[in-house]
Sequence to fold (603 residues):
Amino acid sequence: MRSDGSQPAPLGLKVAAACGLLFLHLPILLIFIYAFTTEEKSFVWPPPGLTTQWFAVTWNRPDVWQALSLSVRVAAISTAVALVLGTLCAAAVSRTRFFGRETISLLVILPIALPGIITGIALRSAFSLAEIPFSFWTIVLGHATFCVVVVYNNAVARFRRTSGSMIEASMDLGADGFQTFRHVVLPNIATALLAGGMLAFALSFDEVIVTTFTAGQQQTLPIWMLEELIRPRQRPVTNVVAMVVVLVTLLPILAAYYLTRDGDQIAGSGK
Amino acid sequence: MTPAVSFAKVSRHFGSVRAVDMVDLDIVPGEFFAMLGPSGSGKTTCLRLIAGFEQPTSGSISIFGERAEGVPPYRRNVNTVFQDYALFPHLNVLDNVAYGLMVKGVGKAERHKAAEEALSLVRLPGYGARRPGQLSGGQRQRVALARALVNQPKVLLLDEPLGALDLKLRENMQEELKSLQKALGITFVFVTHDQGEALSMADRVAVFNDGKVMQIGTPEDIYQRPKTRFVADFVGSSNVLPPDFVQRYSGQHRWGSLRPESIRIGRAAKGDGVAARLVSTNYLGATTRLALDADGLRLHAIVPAGAKLPREGEAVMLTFNREHLHLMDEPG
Fold:
């Protein structure tokens, strides 16, 4: 007998749940609506009129394109760096035993547990100590610290589920290290890497705190938005960009969710 | 004749643990060789040394006369059937079996044909399109076997391949492996902790304990003429008799062994035998196993079903044919 399906939830609980969901999502909806408002200096409710002109305005603003392009490039490179480093690290931690293995595992995960402001200050002082000028690469470095964690976590979980004797079986059947990686390891961790990579991309794309410490004068998209909120002109442009950001980050996260769910089924069917 | 596999003073140490300790053995080409021993006795490490997953700490290994130290697993003409089968979950059965040929660069049509043949050999024709996850344990076992055999190895290594199967399936598989080995003529090296399996399948058995080979011989040798107390006890639970006891019957002060089925149970105080007391009886179907206490020495006897048995606690007289008392190499 399943009690959860047969009995309706009490009304109070339903109302509370609805309120919770509204509280979480109504502000996002509000952002979307303000993207269509005719009032450009401040946000007033209800919007005095609706228009789609801000999409065209946004399209023609070069600063938006610069920020967007910087963000996409940073996210792509950070994700690529994280994929390589995170996978290698996960393979080492889950496949071999060595002195300090648990410590390394903890140290890899630490950047995501630390407040971003600590990571940011630490990186900034490290950069100034080493006299490294702020550049595209300092942002990538900052983002890679937490992107690696996401990839690592996904890869480590998948490595633990794949049988170690599969690699030995591949070698036994005549495959060298590279062939084994290409034909056995990669197909088994591919979905985990894709999921980890997408999460890493999304995290990097809307990161603000670490970026403010490592970007110098450059503007990634989230930082551009923060600056834009202070200025009293063409406000709805920010909202249009916000909509794009929501879509760009939400889609990979949804895809990652579905991919790892399927991945579980694949890994489970081998048992 | 060049041995299929030859170990000369081979040791493999893991830190201070001597997993394999000064092992010498020669495996004859075309034989069914079993490595028998309790868990942790070094038998699986020996198998991994032949496969190339482990390298010896000292000593030398040769496979068909070629030195094997430093040769990686993928350059050895040896294939393994793993204990957990280690099938690739992302490939279907046919591609699993064809894997070895695929990495060697054999064309798709040719390798699929060879894989189909290997699947017929293990009586799984037409299963190629399935995923390993859709097969039963026994079927996965056969796929693992086909995947190893398709490469036509000179030596096939089997790491407790029947361990995960239920009793009935295991018995069938034992017969099948044996006849497959006869038909193919490939050297099989089989690791097991099940003495019955080793005795019934192998041409020769090596008994391992604590990283050392205790005895190598035919199943009959091992069973009838154990050299050490360990072998006598581990292979078929023989009665191990202390030197003082053995001296009374053989005149020699050495450890001896006596098979449980060699002991006859008689009435107390009749004839000259060993006075004992029946401690317990254990009904096993075809036979009954008796635990006896002969003045502090615990003995076991096996009598056929239907024999008239004394009651538990009753005094009995044990007799045995002196020829059945086997003297072991171990001195007292």
